[in-house]
Amino acid sequence: MLTKKYDYHRVVTEPDRQEIYKLRYEAYLKEGIIERNSLEILTDEFDNAGNFKLYGFYEHGLLIGSFRIHIIKTETCTSPARSVFPKEIGAYLEKGKTIVEPSRFTLKRDNNGNRERLINLMKIPFVAAQIYQADIVAVIVRREHMKLYKRLFYGVEVAEPKPYPMALLPCGLMVSEFKKNELNILELVPEFRTASETMSELFNF
Predict the structure, then answer these.
(1) pLDDT tens for residues 131-170?
(2) Is 169 left (phi over 0), alpha (psi -120 to 50) or beta?
């Protein structure tokens, strides 16, 4: 039984994956990002890539959020950004950069704890970037959500929004030079400081 207010699991079993796909579907449908489907789940080809892991975010033992993380080191690695923005991601790979790409951000909202929940959920991509010594954190995001990654990760928009598979709204590409920005991020979000000490075991690929 989970005893901490917030906890994290690397999701590997099919029932747990299906729970996350359902949570995604409900969240994205509520925001008007996707169309309804009869299965009432949201999943895609990148949920079966060899270079990704799926994470659940839990509050008092209940699933309230999720991220999936792709690690991109070579031209053979697949990810949403490699598919939609191949030129931009390819340019970083040609320079030998290691890229951490968080995607399928999902968070169940409440009336008063959204910032606390958000910061704790965002520990997942931050620790992944630390563990894998990311040069770049890349994220595909709708324009109205870009301010979040700009503020928390010092991200900058490097590609204009374009159609994204299964999405009703276009998405752009933001990147953060993580090694350059890491100390600034920690200064801005002190809650991230001890995250790697407690979460590092989740990120063994």
Answers:
(1) 999 999 999 999 999 999 999 999 999 999 999 989 999 9
(2) beta
pTM attached to this predicted model: 0.93
Domain ranges of the chain: 6-194
Task: Give per-residue pLDDT as tens, 5-29.
Answer: 999 999 999 999 999 999 999 999 9
CA distance 142 to 140: 7
Query: What is the SS3 assignment for 128?
Result: helix
For residues 185 and 195, give the distance between their C-alpha atoms in angstroms, rounded to a whole number.
Answer: 13
CA dihedral 47, 53, 59, 60 (to 10 degrees): 110
Alpha-carbon distances of 202 from 12, 45, 156, rounded to whole Å: 12, 22, 28
Q: How far apart are CA 61 and CA 74, in angstroms?
A: 37
Long-range contact pairs involving 146-154 (C-beta distance under 8 Å, separation at least 24) = 146/172, 146/174, 149/174, 149/176, 150/174, 151/188, 152/122, 152/185, 152/188, 152/189, 153/125, 153/126, 153/178, 153/181, 153/185, 154/181, 154/184, 154/185
**d(Cα 69, Cα 21) in Å, to the nearest integer?**
15
Cα–Cα distances (Å) from 155 to 104, 159, 175, 181, in that order, read: 17, 12, 5, 9
On the question of pLDDT at 3 being above 70, the answer is: no
For 6-194, which CATH class? Answer: alpha beta
Q: Which pLDDT score is estimated for 110?
A: 73
